[in-house]
């Protein structure tokens, strides 16, 4: 039975990937320091190793204890705004931890690696939809940290024969359709959960960050991709790596939705108003980010099954309504 190491498997996207792997009958070891992830997000069928990637000795022990077919590396700092305040911290953690992890994996003979990368690689994109050949020009340290990791992995490919998949996520949202996992960040900064919580009366009114962009309704357009579809993309990439070399894929649904359209979807699905007001723009927000995922579709056969905005909002709503305190493990 294939066995996978999933770093950050207690986090939002990681926990959904763990479910997808377990659903296929694969064996999963999760390595997570639980700084952002949740113990309760790790299914009993997976093994949880509570450890920090900074602890190189512990990471090496994990590779000595199990033989892995591949590493899926989700664990990272991932907030654009925070990275603008603490650039060196972001670069040191994300780049240092990722490349050391790859080094230990290679030494242990594990030569397949799937990296959680980001649309933030593209900064203000030179064209939309954004394909893999668009200019890489991150406009914040978070995006740049992922660019550096991708480049490090490319060196490992040339010199050590590592096969890696760099998966550039657009806006992950939604939750497991069977209700086994959901989105629980602290602090929460993402639009879909904030809009749902505002509708449920659990948070103050949502602030829309600007309505004077050059878009049809003036609000920013993003590509919301269902987290379970995103999880499936990891399995597709793993299959691809069995027979092919390294790959880099942009992953989105291929359709853009404005902030106002997301609010409309939440109101439609939830049957409640989303109290909101218009505020100033948020620094660093590009007007439109939409993925061209044609390469992933063509090369792996991946296709989003929950691509409609209402599917994303419906599953996210169901989980948040059922879990008023999220995973309930924070003070
Ligand atoms: N937004 C609001 N009000 C809020 C929160 C968000 O109007 O309270 C807007 C944002 O301005 C943006 C859209 O909703 O236009 C989506 O914002 P999110 O914060 O949910 O997501 P981002 O697009 O900012 O960020 C996501 C990932 C990042 C990744 C980035 C790539 O969370 O990790 O996409 O562009 F880097």
From TrEMBL:
Q: Which reaction does it catalyse?
A: UDP-alpha-D-glucose = UDP-alpha-D-galactose
Which residue numbers delimit the NAD-dependent epimerase/dehydratase domain? 5-252
- GO BP term, pick one: galactose catabolic process via UDP-galactose, Leloir pathway
Q: Which cofactor does it need?
A: NAD(+)
Which Enzyme Commission number(s) are on file for it?
5.1.3.2
Name a GO molecular-function annotation.
UDP-glucose 4-epimerase activity
Q: Which family does it belong to?
A: Belongs to the NAD(P)-dependent epimerase/dehydratase family.
Q: How does it assemble?
A: Homodimer.
Q: What's the name of the protein?
A: UDP-glucose 4-epimerase
